[in-house]
Structure formats: structure tokens, C-alpha cells
Amino acid sequence: MRASRNSSRLLHIETFGCQMNERDSEIMAQLMAAEGYLTTAAPEEADLIVVNTCSIRGKAEQKAMSLLGRYRKLKKKNPRLVVAVAGCVAQQEGVALLERMGHLDLVVGPQEIYQLPELVAAVRNGAGQHCATGQSPAFVIPPFLPELGNGPAHKRFVTIMQGCNNFCTYCVVPYTRGREISREPGDILAEVDHLARLGVREVTLLGQNVNSYGQDRPGLPSFAELLHEVAAIPGIERLRFTTSHPKDLSEELMQCFASIDALCPHFHLPVQSGSDAVLKRMNRKYTRAEYLDKVARLRAIRPDIAITTDIIVGFPGESEADFAATMELLEIVRYHGAFSFKYSDRPHAASAQFGDKVPEAIKGERLSRLQARQEEITFARKQELVGTVTEVMIEGGSKNGDQWSGRTAANVIVNFTAVETFTPGQLVMVQLDEACQNSFRGTIIQHEEQPA
Ligand code: 5AD
Ligand code: SF4
């Protein structure tokens, strides 16, 4: 770690998009902390602003762009302010961003975030605007040992791979995040071990396509082997991962849900559509039947597994019959939860060139129908659990003391009343009394001794 130099400098970070971006923002904050930067929630008092952007859907990109526009005023007031754009929009737009917005100093792609301290120093030394969007298949994710940042101290994200090789026709990610690169297993294990020693009890392994971990270079463990090794690290009570592609969901990985105690019984398995014709045009490389077989197999191995998904409605050429097939899939799988989106054209994505675009109004109407039905199913799934007793990891308590909240292994929030004091990360047994749309209310049954 570098020695602290400018102890009074302040950094403000705004993060859009997925957990990969959240983790990247933490890494940038940690790198800048080593340079003496403290984080601030107030952009107007910052010396450095980083906007970590997402370009997965049109809306996410627009939000980031309008926020960047607002920082023009701050830069006018304080010419010493450095404004950096990171993440997927930075990679996608590159130098064009600097041309369009003269108040921006830095454009930093996902592979370049580790250079942030040097890039900021160069701007401070008068180097002018700079675009760092290098992307190489030979990139090595640095062996980064994190300090605990501002996130909750009991659970953390750990990036295990970057990029994506799948080229789903709607998706910008292979262009913004590049090809799949697995991180060295020794670095991953060292990072998790370090976190566990600092008191972290839950780890989520991150990648665009985590279940193809290890396939990009000979000699790496499979994803299932990696899970076993991470779970064996003392102190890790809960292990999660996201996101997975159904085509790479192996029997070996499914078996982990029977053999690894710490692995939470939750699988986020994006289906995108229930229609074979649409799946084919999306280049998803599985059929509806193959997907359903994997869901059935997962449930045979781990009957209490919660399965959640992502769905796109209104993909080019999606007919009412295609959409009906997706609605029917909801009834068959009965997902514990689903994120659903209206299709939007993305730069570079093949489907942007497809004809037969679905009108906005129809996309909107289909999305409301799907979300309304899924909300009912999500709620019914919760009601099925009312009366059961389950293990909850404490997240925190309310200020006045007796209201506590935690998460089930399936990652659902549980609120309960208790006069005792708990620490975040502590495991307690709670009876689920009432299902709400996004949480449960429960009664505490018992709890373990507080960790020393
Ligand atoms: N339009 C709408 N939704 C998209 N997603 C990815 N690309 C698009 C797009 N062009 C959704 C997918 C993916 C999730 C992260 O975002 O459902 O799984
Ligand atoms: Fe957004 Fe995807 Fe990039 Fe994450 S990887 S920031 S979700 S575009």
C-alpha cells in the first residue's frame, strides 16, 4: 500500500449497474484511499468525482450521461475538481465522451481502473484530458488484497472473472468488458482468506458468466472446484455467486448444492425468453426444454433452492405467441423472483440491426402483464414459507434498538423484533410469520454466541 499523501482530499463515486461495477467502485475507492482520499457522499465538496457507468440498457446509459452533465457546474466553480467516467459507457464511447463533454478529465475502461491513481495524478500535473480504454485478452486481474471499505463489513463481493464470450445478440457486454479472463485461483483464495480474517462471513463470487470460470486457460480449476476451495476457508458461512449462463450449468456445479454446506440455496439463472424461436435469435444456445431440464435437475438435487431469473420482453420479432410462451414458463418454473426489462437496442449488439422491432407501447404492455403475474408468484412463493424456521444472517438494526433485519439463505430480507443486541453477520434462527411483497416479518427463535 502507498503511504498517505494528501489526507484532506475527498472522493465522490456514483455507481450504476451490476455488482461487478459495485465491486469496481470499491476497488477504485480503496486505491484512492491509499493516496489519501476519503470518500464523501456530497459531490459539491469532492476533489475527485468518479461516475462508474452501465450501458446494459438504454435507460442506465441515459441516467449516467445526465448525471455527468450536471457536474459541469461543479467543475466551473472548482477548476481543481477532477471528473472521471468509468465502467461500460466509458469503454463503449471512449474519447467521444471527452469531445462531447469538455468538463470531463478522464475516461477509464473496466480493465484500466487499477491505473486510476496514476491517471488522476497526471491530470493534476496538467496532462489534460485522457482516455484509458485499453482492452487485452492477456490482461491479468491484479492480485488485490482489499481493506474493508464503506460496505457492510460482514459480506463482500469478490471478482473471479471478467468479460463474456457468449455474444447474445442483444448484449453490449462482450464489447464493453471484452473476452472472458479468469482470475488466478490463488489470488481469489488469498482475497477471500484475507476478508474472512477481517470478519467477513458471506462472500459473493462475481463474473459476467461465472460458471464458465477456468475455461479460458489450461490448468485452472473448474468453477465447481473453485467453489469447494472457497467454501473451505474458515469463517466463510455463506457463499453465493452471480451471474450464470444456463448453457454452462454443469452437473458438477449442480452437485455443489448438495455437497457444500456454505453454498446458499439460491440460483440466479437468466432465461431471457420462454420461446425457442426468440432464444435462437438471441443466440442463447439452449432451448426452453433444456433450460427446464436444468431447473428440474437443480430442484431434484436441492429441493429448497430458490431460482430467480432475468427476462427481456419485446425482443425484435417477438410475437404474441412468443410472449405467451414466456408467460407460460413463469407458471412452470414459478420463480422466486425475476428482473424483467423492455428490450432496447444497444451499440454493437447484433439485434440492433434486426428488423421487426416491437413497438414501445406493446413492449410496455407486455412488461406490465409479466411483472404483475410474477409479483403474484413471488408473493405466493413467500407465503409457502410462512410458519417455517430458517437461518437469517443479521444485516443491522434500527436506531431505536429493538427492530432487526437480516437475510435468509435465499437472500430475502426478514424483519423481526428483539431486545437483544446482534452484530452484522451473526446467524440467528427466525420463524417466518408473515410474507410481505419484498420481505418477511418473523420471530426470533434462537441465536448463536456473538463472534469474538
Ligand atoms: N435490452 C433489454 N434488456 C437487456 N439485458 C441485457 N441486454 C439488454 C437489452 N439490450 C438484460 C438481460 C440481462 C440483464 C442484466 O439485462 O435480461 O440478463
Ligand atoms: Fe452494466 Fe453489464 Fe457493464 Fe455491468 S457489465 S456495468 S450490467 S453493462
Q: Please give the largest β-sheet.
A: 6 strands, parallel
Report the sheet-strand fraction. 15-25%
CATH H level of the largest domain: which superfamily?
Answer: tm_1862 like domain
Radius of gyration: 23 Å
In what order do the strands lie side by side in the largest sheet?
A: 2-1-3-4-5-6
CATH architecture of the largest domain: Alpha-Beta Horseshoe
By CATH reckoning, the class of the largest domain would read Alpha Beta
The CATH topology label of the largest domain is pyruvate-formate lyase- activating enzyme
pLDDT < 50 stretches: 1-6
Q: Judging from the principal axes of the Cα atoms, what is the shape?
A: globular
Number of strands: 19
What is the helix tally? Answer: 13
Summing up helix and strand content along with how strands pair, one would put the structural category as alpha/beta
- Counting structural domains, the number is 3
Query: What's the helical proportion of residues?
Result: 25-40%
Q: Give the terminus-to-terminus CA distance.
A: 28 Å
Round the mean pLDDT to the nearest integer and report it. 93
Q: Which small molecules are bound?
A: 5'-deoxyadenosine, iron/sulfur cluster
